[in-house]
Specification:
This protein is an alpha/beta fold and 424 residues long. The chain folds into two domains: 171 residues, Aspartate Aminotransferase, domain 1; 235 residues, Type I PLP-dependent aspartate aminotransferase-like (Major domain) (Aspartate Aminotransferase, domain 2, 3-Layer(aba) Sandwich). The chain is built from twelve helices and 13 strands. The strands form three sheets. It has a seven-stranded mixed β-sheet with strand order 4-10-9-8-7-5-6, sandwiched between helices. Helix 5 packs parallel to helix 6 and helix 10 packs across helix 11. Bound molecules: pyridoxal-5'-phosphate.
Length: 424
């Protein structure tokens, strides 16, 4: 797509002058194909419009927060209503109690909740709570798993110092022997084992959690007195309305939530069991905006929809339709496309594509046809998508595979690939 003289191009140039690197974090310049827009004008339901007026069916869902559709009327009405009553006040409203009651009623392991703004707040609070509870230092987490952008867990080392990641042992996800070795190495200093609900690392195939790994993590925590933390910031509410590991019958001591908890409004949470209550009451955690009432009103309405609608079956059937359809069309076009992870949060990677040149080309061809997909990060289904949307995306995919086939012999390596993979 030619973006010369586009509004997006003009904004990128202005951003280069006033925003470091032109943009930061997961929106950093160069993470996506060149023709992807950096700036959006609006969103509605399952669709996004960029600043040049192009409309996309959005399979990123704001990297997770969009669960029921952008601008979902009931959720946004609850938010706006509360804005008119009071949002950031000197203290919380009664909504904080209601929301904590709702979540502890919904999530089996949870007896209490602390609300914050970002997923990183919740995972960092889990770390501190576990250390306060055990009076020990060491945590175990899986290599490549994302837990946020704080110095203790961020993937890129710039600006961090080795001690930020001191007292951490990395293990291999789903590898019981590696987990056991890490626990042995921690000795009598183990504070917590962190776990993603499933393997949802960028750039590599996703994988379901091995129940034996989950069971062993629980046992090892019980044996050592360490806390088990499930980081449900990304997967929460998309696999089940309980903590994701409850699907395997495993209850953690702490779980972190965020992203779609209020369908795009800024709130996250750390949930915990009674075992960790005293420690959670002992730590000092807060933020100027952590008591905001409007996102809590939006979260309550989101959770009402979670309880009262068939959204999860919709996400599953739409996701299945997309994933099955894509595999069939890729196969028919002669491409090996690996579609991994739960169908509600799929990741697409091409076989024989070590530097993602096929993935970038195909994604660009999808974008040109009005479908926003991601070449190396998992995507998200939302309940505002329709079967017609999915069928349209599959038609686009068929044409995009044909275009890829034509271009494949001439594709050059993806620029900035080294930069990209260094994020992991
Ligand atoms: C996004 C994410 C986080 C961090 O959440 P933020 O709101 O971006 O701070 C933590 N853990 C997981 C698994 C995530 O996907």
């Amino acid at each position: 797509m030619d973006r010369t003289n586009s509004r997006d191009r003009a904004l990128r140039e202005r951003a280069q002058a006033v925003i470091p690197g032109g943009m930061y974090g997961h929106q950093s310049v160069g993470l996506l194909p060149e023709d992807y827009p950096q700036f959006f004008a609006r969103g509605e339901g399952a669709h996004l419009w960029d600043v040049d007026g192009r409309r996309y069916l959005d399979f990123m869902c704001a990297y997770g927060p969009n669960l029921f559709g952008y601008g979902q009327p009931e959720i946004d009405a609850a938010y706006v209503r509360q804005l008119g009553i009071g949002d950031t006040l000197t203290g919380p409203t009664e909504l904080i109690v209601q929301l904590a009651e709702t979540l502890t009623g919904m999530v089996t392991h949870a007896d209490w909740a602390i609300f914050c703004k970002n997923g990183t707040d919740a995972t960092s609070m889990a770390l501190v709570t576990a250390r306060a509870h055990t009076r020990r230092k060491t945590i175990i987490r899986a290599k490549g798993a994302y837990h946020g952008a704080a110095p203790w867990c961020v993937g890129r080392p710039a600006g961090t110092i080795p001690t930020d990641k001191a007292s951490q042992i990395l293990c291999d996800y789903n590898d019981v022997a590696s987990l056991e070795a890490a626990v042995a190495e921690a000795g009598d200093d183990l504070a917590a084992i962190f776990a993603a609900p499933f393997k949802h690392d960028a750039f590599i195939d996703q994988a379901a959690p091995d129940p034996a790994y989950a069971r062993r993590a629980r046992e090892l925590c019980d044996q050592t007195g360490a806390l088990l933390v499930v980081d449900d910031v990304r997967a929460g509410l998309r696999l089940t309305s309980d903590c994701s590991w409850s699907l395997m019958g495993i209850q953690p001591d702490l779980s972190s939530w965020g992203k779609c908890l209020a369908n795009g409004h800024a709130i996250s949470a750390l949930l915990g069991s009674d075992k960790a209550r005293k420690a959670a009451a002992s730590i000092y955690v807060t933020g100027s905006f952590w008591y905001e009432a409007a996102p809590m009103a939006a979260a309550l309405e989101t959770l009402r929809l979670v309880r009262e609608t068939d959204y999860l079956q919709r996400l599953e059937s739409l996701g299945r339709r997309l994933c099955d359809g894509l595999k069939a069309r890729a196969g028919a076009a002669g491409f090996g496309l690996r579609v991994t992870g739960p169908v509600q949060m799929p990741l697409f990677l091409f076989d024989d594509d070590p530097d993602l040149r096929k993935g970038f080309c195909w994604s660009s061809e999808m974008l040109a046809r009005g479908v926003y997909v991601h070449p190396w990060h998992n995507m998200f289904m939302c309940a505002a998508m329709t079967e017609a949307d999915i069928d349209g995306a599959l038609d686009a995919a068929e044409a995009a595979f044909a275009a890829l086939k034509r271009q494949a012999p001439d594709l050059g390596p993806v620029e900035k690939m080294a930069f990209l993979t260094a994020q992991g």
